[in-house]
Every structure is written in C-alpha cells, then in structure tokens.
Design goal:
Largest sheet: none
Number of strands: 0
Distance between the termini: 17 Å
Shape: globular
Number of helices: 15
Strand content: under 5%
Length: about 300
Amino acid sequence: MVGNDYLSYLSYLTYGYGVDRLEPFSKFTIEYVLAHRIWPYYWFVLCAAIQITFFLFGFRNMKKILPYGVFFFLFYFLSFYTSGIRQANAISCIFFAFSFIKERKLIPYLLFVLFAFLNHRSAVLALPAYWIFNTDKILGIKMQIVTILAGLIVGQTLIVYLVEKYGVYLTVIGYDYLAERIKENDMKVEVDSGLGVIFNYIVFLVVVLYSKKLHEYFKDKNFSIYYNLFVFSVFCYGFTMHDQYLSRMMFFFRMSIPVVLAYATYYFVSKREDSIIWYPILAAFLVLEVYKWANDQWFFVF
C-alpha cells in the first residue's frame, strides 16, 4: 500500500482521469504515456529515476557521508516518496540545487529550481534559500535552543498570522485553496502517543548540543549551509508536523535533516570518545524502522 496519491496517478495513467492538478512535466509525460499506450508503470520508473538520481547528485560535495545520508533519507522520506510522487521529484531536484549554493552558481541553481517547479509548483518556496543560507556561520547553541522553543511556543500563532496576511500568495505555489483549510485545521495529521515526536526532539537536541564541535570538525561551508537549513526545519517542525499541507511545504527544507544526521553520524563514528552518545540513537532508529515495517500496511526490506 503506497497511499491514495499513487492510486490517483495510476488511474490517470490508465484511464486519463484521477488527478485534478498537474504541472507541465507531469502532464506532458503522463499524456505521452496515454497517447502512445505505454505500460503505465514506466512512468513510475521514470519518476523514481529522477528522485534517486538527483538525490544522489545532491551529495556530490559530501560523498563521505552518503551512506549515512541514504539511511536517514529512507527513514524520514521513503514513505512520502512512494506516494507524493510529483513533489518528491521536485524535492530531489531542489536538494541537488542546494549543492550549488556553496559554489555560488546561480544559473544552475535557478535551472534546477525551474525543473522542480515544473514537477510541483511549491518548489518556488526554496528559491530564496540561495541567498538566505549562504553562510559559513551557525547560531550559538543557546540561540538555537531559543529558536526551536519559539517554534513550539508561538509557531502556531505565527503561521495563522502569516496565512491570514499573505494567504492570497499561496496561488503561486498551487495552494490557493488551502488558506482557509489551514486556518481551520482541516488537514490535521492524526497522531498516537507522540513518542516519535519526542524521539525526534531528543535527536535534534543532541545535534544542537554538539553543533559547535561538528562545525569545527568539518570546517566546510556545505555543513554550515545544511546546518542552518536544519535549524530552520526544526524551528518549523513544532508547528507544521501536525498539518499535512504545512508539512509538505516544509519538505524542501527538511531534506537537511538526514544530511545533518549523516554528518553527525560520521563525526561520532570518527570520534570514538563521543560515540557512546550516538550509538544508542542509531540503535533506536533501527528499532523504530523495524517497528514501522511490522505495523504499516506495507514495509520495505533493504
């Protein structure tokens, strides 16, 4: 079971209906499949190739952390990637585009943002990242904690204000119909005990507490860029995680989470004196992943 979105795409590929809104790339490729009576599953193969290729290309300057990055990507994103296919294409393209920030290559960055936009209009949200996150510096640990707590305490009030004041601009990213639904909490994600959320915050806190050591260890602008994206994502996590629409808007920036966790894992594996803190966390990720496989309607085996 891969979600309702997948079945909608399959219906469109088979019968020509099932998806209300399609961006140019998806519309052209699906109509091509229909017109030439191509086996519908080839379209999913094409999208999977786009997703995997651009995700791997996004690690072109971070090859040493790639294995860990793949693991955390599968943990956080695999379920969404098999359902939200158009946006997943866009997320991988944006992730690849981020790799040009360090090199200050604006034209390639804009081209890949454009391709992402042609897959899913919400990709335009990532456009300002080129200018905002281009820095070698990161916030101090206390300021990071204050920022994250602010997201938990006042984030919901902030998002309601922004939607009320600027909701009309959601049209640009194809979410023009969502302003009222977001304000009315129409698409709240159902949660159980919240243990997964607590676990995430524990992991985030450990990374924050070691952020200065990580920054000093890597001495790499790539790390700074992704770490600042990470702090921004964790700040927003507190008030977007329970809303399906808001959560999906944040996915372009949340790709920084598996990247930073991969950096952290590389650090802790290399620095054996600190590894006792991180290995229990890695074990917990494995246990949670197996738990998901056992309890979801579908599961994935490496």
